[in-house]
Amino acid sequence: MKRNIYLISAAALIFACSPFQNVLYAQDKALDSALMDRVTELEKQMSEKKSGDDHFMVAGLATFGFVSNTTTTTSGGISQKATTNSFPDVDHFEFSPLFLWRHGSHFLLEFEPSFDGFSVGVNWADVSYFVTPGLILRAGYLVTPFGTYSKRLAAGWIDKLPTDPTGVADYPSLSDFGIEAEGGFPLGSMKWSYDVSLTNGQQLLPDGELQPVGAVDNNKNKTITGRLGLLPISNSSLEIGVSGMYGTVGDVNTPYESAKSGSWAIDLNYVKLFNPILVNFKGQANFTYVNTQKYVNPTDSSLYTFDNKTTSSYAQIALRPTGSQNNFIKNLEIAFRYGRYVTPENSLWGQTSDIIDASLNYWITWRTVFKVGYQSNNGTSTSLENSGDKIKSESLFIQFAIQL
Amino acid sequence: MKSFLKNKWIFLVLISLGTMAIISINGCKASQQVSSKSGVQLWSENCQRCHNTPSPASFSPEQWETIGMHMQSRALLTDEERNKIVAFLKQ
Q: Is residue B50 part of a domain?
């Protein structure tokens, strides 16, 4: 027995002193050293990290759908009917990734390119500086503060109907290059907000229409746009806003040099749960004018004038039984909208349109919706060349919209 | 040109006067009723003004900070509202 103990001890002593054991020890030491180097490197990186950290994220939206349209045009007692149906068209397809880059707690870069089925454009590309409570400064290609539809409600996953209200979203044009100041404040049990921008503005075309002037201004003046909003109820259910826009729109050194345009808008938003129905009412009215100018009549190139005033408005209501106990029913929503779009009489594009929209929506998630909509558009031409012509259009929409 | 400048300045002055008048009424302070609101209450009241109320699980806490800034500039939330709503969504 004693002999066996001696043998085991001798074997253990030989193993401990063997070259194999030395190799294992050296490998462990090298591993420890590499780990320590890595930890030291990470500690160095952390200590060098600035307080104004960079935070980048991608969100965005996509809409896709199908539209079937029948348009009947009646001119001189003769009617013509045209029917189309297609997968997305320009108004109902959008793929818009939104890049947000927050630098510390004061700077935010926003960039939203957009593919509409035909071309790639940019909805906005700007940098915001959160200066103090109640003051945000912004510069770049921004959405001017005129009404609320374009800035807050136009996205397919927010809009209760498959289409934009005609005219409200794009006349006057609302994405522009410039600077902006905005903020929101408490006001006792109410709230109010301001939003003011100074931008390049619009350009008056020879037929009297206005279009965005783009990155290079067409005159020395800038367009000022502002909105004041008031939320008079403490639960923020009601918001009322008034907006104005004013600027020179004529190209310098042309007959339109003195042309100026002004626009006014009022908007209203009311969202309240009357258990079990969530009532969502929205409306906006835009009014745009251009001071008296001479326009070109394309038939004989003579000059003539017309009262260059355009109005666009909509009122919509959406009802959703969010208080229902049934999961399927609580995700259903119905929406109705009435819109009116009146362009200048005796202009080349003069028309009065009454548009009725209805939609049945199913909310798959809070930001994913499936819509089946119907639109009726009754138009009467008041244009210089086709006054009295009737245009009746009916459309069926199927739309899927998602925010990511 | 003079007319244009005059109109532009009238517009600016009206906005400034309106702003100052509103500020002077209540000194831009929230009432006790408003300032005692929780983040979850402000989340439910303000988000649905434009869209459905988002699930806190939709984004990471870091992303909610960024989205909070984006949404404050869209909906013109007050700073207190943004801070409380983001704090709730980050939980």
A: yes
